[in-house]
Protein 1
Amino acid sequence: MTGPRSTLREVALGRRRLTFARASLYGFVVLAVLSWAYILVGVDSGLGDLFSHRAWGNAGHFVRQLLGLEAGLVDGGRPAFLEASRWAETGKLAYKTLLMSVLAMSIAGVGVLLTFLPAARNVSNGELGGRSSFGLGALYYAIRLVFAFTRAVPELVWAMVIVFLLSPGVLPGAIALGLHNYGIVGKLSAEVVENMDPGPARALRSAGAGNLQMLAYGIIPQALPQFLTYLLYRWEVVIRTTVVVGFVSAGGLGREFRLSLSYFQYTDVALIIVWYLALVIAVDLLSAGLRRLIRSG
């Protein structure tokens, strides 16, 4: 017979039991404390420079140059954001940047649609009602390896390689962003299929449906909304990453941003930042609206 004391003892023992989640939390706290200890105590951490009068003075000079309140080394005269011609020129670059992001997600989306089903373990081993084979198993590992490789290489590295193969412009940046996001969206979409309810697909298979019918009516309708959601989420990230690939002459606002910084044209930098902010807000709002449509549909 168990009484209140034994119940309390069991609860106390359960609280003291070290679970994986609790061990992970403890490990994170220890790493955080050690990291901050190195920053605060380390000789070359640079923490003292953060609070130095010189650092804040340089920051103030830079902000005033961005706003056109103080002339830089080369940038002088009227600020770029007060010139209509500069708005028009950078607006064309912003349009190219938007095209780069859309083209990148189109490349990633088409590639994932063609490969994410055989990259799901329950499709390759027949758990969803199909038949497993050596060919499907080999294809599963090959596509998973491609997913891992493409997402492991950063967008900037992809862009640096592709620019050597193609002429500088929007296309190399779009391919670089598309390759990197192909691996990310492909892995997430394949895991959606692995975690889905196998009931509808098995019911279709037992009713005599073929492979294409099972995919079209049992698997894709369940996986497609999540796939589109992941694609839209990554689009929001890609529109921010275009500035990175632009640093290696991949076109768009990123290339102009690097050139303006190199020539100390600080008001042009401020104008490009404004365009980037407008693009990010527009893509975030559009992506959120499309995701609501997907959920309601």
Protein 2
Amino acid sequence: MQIRNLFKTLFNWELWHFYVLYAPISPVWLWYCIRSRSLWFFTPSNPQITFGGFEGEGKKEMYNLLPPNVVPKTIYIKQGLAFEELLKRVREGGFEYPFVVKPDVGMKGILFRIIRNEEQLIKYHARIPVRYIVQEKVNYAEEVSIFYYRYPWEQKGVVSGFIHKELLQVKGDGVSSLKELIEKHPQAKHRKAEMEHRHSHRFERVLPEGAIFYLSFAGNHNRGAKFTNLEKEINESLTSVFDELSRNTGFFYGRYDIKANTIEDLKQGKNFIILEYNGAGAEPNHIYDCGMSLGKAYKTILHHWKVLYKISRYNAKNGYPCWSYKRGRKYLQAARKHFKMLEKFD
């Protein structure tokens, strides 16, 4: 079984470690650094967001720039706040269980939780070591990602990627235990340690036939979410929605994670909520789960890097210089230290 999994990993580039996948094309990234005379050439790409949105920016920054009608109801909770004060703020904010909690500065679904009762909130608040957000659980049916970019000298941009996300889940058959369903799931069975950590206390539960059980609420490829490419749904109406957002926010390059009532509603710019925006560090995740060859995946990534370089260079020449080496190094070190800490608590 271990040998079979090894060969599956070797011959499926989507399962490769991030650094293994990107190593062959990393000289191109280095070339852009050299041409820009800055390791942080990307920082002017989204000048309204810290570090261009490459890594370590807070969600509050992004939400403050977006129109209020496309942002989920959110409050920010400081570490160490008295629990009575927390409950008061939750009540005054009009939140009802279940709702979402996650770090203000986070990534990859780390410490993302659905809170269903006061007991769960007490445990989360007592354990999390950083400021976090309490956020309404958006119940729109469709979860999608949009990769969008716009050159600052142009009014119209490009929706280069559009995917539908299916969260990591199993479906009950009325006979099998949750543990057995996980062991048969093509993605979940390879995440044994994570599944045991999160769900071992439920392993013996038998799900009714047809019942859906979510193993993770994080819509990330690295957390087992399944992506469906919606490239054929990209049209002028959809692009116009994000053109308007870009002009209003100064987001020139990145990926929007969205929940929408329907795909058609999103195209018309209604009944959708932006959960997150990932800037210069966003991966074009439409390369996954669509049968794309490694060569085409590299071509797609390199195209986006070229776009990022052009946007950054233009903005750098028009009032938004690249960060200095010292400033960027200090910021990145702090951000990575922060994420390592979160991973331990997750």
Protein 3
Amino acid sequence: MSSDSAVRSVLAGLDSSRSWQEELYRDVHQHPELSHQEQRTAGLVAGRLRSAGFEVHEGVGGTGVVGVLRNGDGATVLLRADMDALPVREATGLPYASEATATDGDGNEVPVMHACGHDVHVACLAGAAQLLADGRQHWKGTLVALFQPAEETGDGARGMVDGGLAELVPTPQVALAQHVMPLRTGRVGTHAGSALTTAAR
């Protein structure tokens, strides 16, 4: 089977997964959690990964979740999404708008919302993981689905590494992250190396 037909075969399940992905997105959007407080979100994605057949590691670096799907000989590919929200009050008027509040690191009660698209990232990676698990007869290798906490505070990735990530997953040959950007619908942009404002930190 050619790589193009393999991709088409994996993506054939997209329509059937879209409804639960949208539901997951709305759920996570309505229940945002600050950096290092992503317990509910972590539980949702861990459950999704388990039901798709992944080996799941929870509590990596605090609230991080990693799923590993071994599917024969081949490259190891890591896909990453971040989970945390921001101390911002939502004023979108959406029917699933966040009304959540939380206590921040300074002990202040603050409003919380997904103002940076991490709810989208969670839903997209959960969907990709399910599609690749369902279509595993069309590819070989190992898939690592990594849900990172505390991107907004800049220490979530380091926490996962310090929490033993390298001992839990095989070394990836390719690592892909994602971010919502103001592009035309249906467009995907790629960039090699560091990108976005805090990439050089």
Protein 4
Amino acid sequence: MAGLQIPTVYEGEIKSKRRIGRVMSETDFLNIFAARTTGDFIRSYSGGQQEETSITLPQDFSFYLAGNFTDGISYFFELEHEAIHIEGTKEGRFEEGSRLGLGKEFFFMFDLPILLSRDLSGMAGMTREGMHHGSGAMIHGPMMMAGKIDPSTSFSYPTNRQLILNLPGRVTDTGKMERLRLTPYAFASKFFGVMTADSEPVEVTRSVLYNTTGDLGIDTHMMIGPLLIQAGVMQGLLSGPTDSNPKKDPYLMGRINFGGKRYISGSLSGLAYRGYDTARVPTGVNQTTLVDWLRYGVAGNIRYRLLDFYGAFIWDTLKGQDHLSATFDKKAAGFTIEGDYLTTDRTLLSLRYDQMNSGGLIAEKTDGKVLTAQARYYLRDNFSFYLRDSYNLKEANRNPLRNFRNLVALGLDFDF
């Protein structure tokens, strides 16, 4: 409703796109503004070495501005406050605290055919009108995003749009991870002991690379009939606005859509990502070296009436340091699958399974399996309460990946 330009869609919810500039009324402002808050009335970890019961409300509060500068240029700005935010430092520690700043995404989107004043309808009989004409195929785009982006928005299983929310971990007083954040394991870094190019440690369950929740990059994508093609480059592993490594990370993704009749639809995606000197790994006492990071993945989703299934396999390999094989496992993999069923017009039931076969420092790494069940009750379409239970299917121990047996949380999700 904010008017963020979508390929071939020039009206959307409002007939005239709101241009940025003087806001004439409350109605005009609400067309480009939104806010969202999430948090838990109670969150209880049990069965691990460090049990915890807490109230974190709100955990996240986000402001959004989205709309158009022109018909061909859109913007999406997010500002976010997190009550518990964990980042690595250059001293090799983790720090836990609150954070206020740029949110997960902050980008500009460009409709290239409009900006270049080109009509692509003549390409191989394709049309931009949004309908099939004879043997022609619908074409969308190409579109380009630039800024702090989540490339996986076009993937069959997007990183950001989670019905089962991510939960932050916990850091000890000495800067060690006591418990890792709960996220879909397919998207995680998966390597114990890996660092950014600037020597900042990376949380093992942090969503990174193509599956980041937001990092600097340029993304181009277009659709030809049921096929979506996406290519882009990212700044690097959690590099932020500055990157000590001048090399960038290219990626390529393809998605094919199917169905659309008799209440059945879905898609399949394939991904290839290459990070050049994008991460550091330890080579000895106070010594590290840059390595390449290869990520391959497949994802799919299928929808039938009120039931959704979706999942992803992601494989990761570090390249460039063969002599580390005795102490550092260079391969890792993650698998996530989820099902959501709308039982009534107000009740949504979700079940998710996550599995991680981790890599990294052999002395520290361990594997993980978590099963999460959740029920959401919607008071309104923008206001819901949820009750979740995440159960560690592996043996609970002091490793931060498995330092809990059970997590129960009751919270709310509200957007305006």
